[in-house]
Hints:
Radius of gyration: 30 Å
Shape: globular
Strand content: 5-15%
Structural class: alpha+beta
Order of helices and strands: HHHHEHEEHHHHHHHHHHHHHEEEE
Largest sheet: 4 strands, antiparallel
Strand order of the largest sheet: 6-5-4-7
Amino acid sequence: MEKNKILSKLNIRIKDYNNELEKILENKLFSYDVKNLLLSMLYKIENAYSDYETVKVEVPTKNDFIENLLRIIKEKALKIFIVKVGTVEAEELEKNNLTYKIDKQNGEIICYQNELVILEALIDLDDTYKTVEVPYDYVLEPLNTMLTMGNLDSRAEVIRDFNGWSWDIVLKEINDIQYNYIYETILLLNGKNNIYKKKHKLFYDEIIKLLVRKYFNNSNNLDYAENLKNRKKEVSEQLYLFENKKEFVSRITEEKKEFTKQIEIIDKILNDNELLKKEYYKRNEKLPNKEKIFSISYLVRILIKEREELLSKIDYSNSIILPKEFISNKSKIEKEKNFLQNIEAKVELKDLLQIANEFLQIAKGIIDKIEETNKSDLIKWMYKIRYYRYVPITEDKFIKDMPELEEKFDSIIKAIIKKAQILKIWDNFCDDNDITFKILKEVFNTKIIYLQNINIQCRYENKVLYVEFLDDTIIENTININAENIRIKRKTKLFI
């Protein structure tokens, strides 16, 4: 109450989201259980959001997150049905290994009575997407799938992994480990406001190629895989022609002749009413009812459009054999062929580790450039690297558990420690840099929510340094370090 009075005097508006949700629910024909579930979900989000925002850094503000959720409930969620175990509806969900089902067109959700499940369903129901830049059309579907699923898991994390007093990652609740891993990697590097933007080109190219491979090998995407195989074949044939210029020019010449012939036929039809009628009946005979051409005047517009398209093809054919255009187009085809190489290979752990290696390399470059006036940026990267270490990379392992990445992680953590001491954010524990590193590296393994709360307590006995990491006064974890003749502060706060 006192806090509310203080904020009121400062003219800071306190939002009562519980009240806002209740007002929205007054106009909804949801059952009592559904309304209670939504209110309980909101309570859990509000209770956990501060910890979620602190640990992860790259998240929307609490206001933005909740207001977007309320918008979805108000505008998109028209019907919500809760199913109970043992019912026909529940059996259908279980059969398809689902916890919820949505119908975007009708704004309908069918789900179990669980706060995490209803949150995921609401996020999934929202179809507000942004334009994503892609090098080839067939990249869009795999990329959007990752962004959609990644966004869902990233936002559901607020109540999946946070309960208001601890951070506990529930691996089995993540919908797709690989999509989540890729999304979180991009999010941490690009930032919450640039998740849809193409930054760090080589890094981006590696990721989209990996996403196409993953999507190609999904047994649910057989049509996509078949189309991509055909495209790969087309690219190989095109490159063959570019590499055999004489044959290429010959084929282009033949195509131009064919285009010219088709234009002549269209011109003849357009200038003869009888031929127009014949064309009208001829086309309509082959078309289903819903696609039939409804008048001859409409057929004229179709023919004119076809004629313009043929003229464009002739113009393109003329330009493509010019020396400059020829070299440019050949280069594009070669690039696409390289992109499509090994596209049928399944995504393996080594591919994901390569993404992590590149992320850590780019992140270290950013950290090295942080200036003294930007202490807050370095603190953000402390949290981001700690969070990244706990991003799952397989069904049972986090990125920090990968021995292949240990050297890169050590390098970036040393860079953070050095920069933190230069900027007087962290204290020097002792003159021995190796001991200091071993102590401070453990900060990136802790799950203490607020790093600024960490106290480090040391005890040295029989050539062993015992180090305790406390969340204020509660011991969170300990490490033992073999050391000789060491002088170190008995107890100190991590942050100066």
